[in-house]
Design brief:
Blueprint lengths: L1 E2 L2 H9 L4 E2 L8 H13 L2 H18 L6 H15 L16 H13 L1
Parallel strand pairs: 1-2
Helix pairs in contact: 1-3, 2-3, 4-5
């Protein structure tokens, strides 16, 4: 079983889930691999610490107005553009992130 939302990933893995397809793993794959590995090893304390970091990623990258899919995709694309992985272009009807959100994402990435 795979799960998408980051908020449910730790619970899914702890209950025997096989993994996930969360958007944040495109930006910080080491967090998601670390979460999976620590759950597999039974290191729940370490897994919870990693999960908190993942939820920080979610709160910054996915926040804002509009449809959930708009916020998630646009936030991921903006973060990936700051890391020179890809362009931030999103196809209509999706919209790019606001300047304020872009600044928040850039600051978050620089502090991470």
């Amino acid at each position: 079983m795979l799960i998408g939302p980051e908020g449910l990933l730790i619970e899914s893995l702890a209950m025997g889930g096989n993994g996930g397809a969360p958007g944040g793993d495109n930006i910080f794959p080491e967090l998601y691999v670390g979460l999976y590995e620590n759950i597999q090893k039974g290191n729940l304390g370490k897994a919870l610490n990693i999960h908190r970091k993942i939820m920080d990623v979610s709160s910054v990258i996915y926040s804002g107005s509009g449809q959930s899919s708009d916020r998630v995709i646009a936030g991921i694309k903006k973060a990936l553009s700051f890391t020179n992985i890809c362009e931030e272009y999103v196809e209509n009807p999706l919209m790019e992130v606001s300047e304020v959100k872009a600044k928040n994402i850039k600051q978050f990435l620089s502090e991470y």
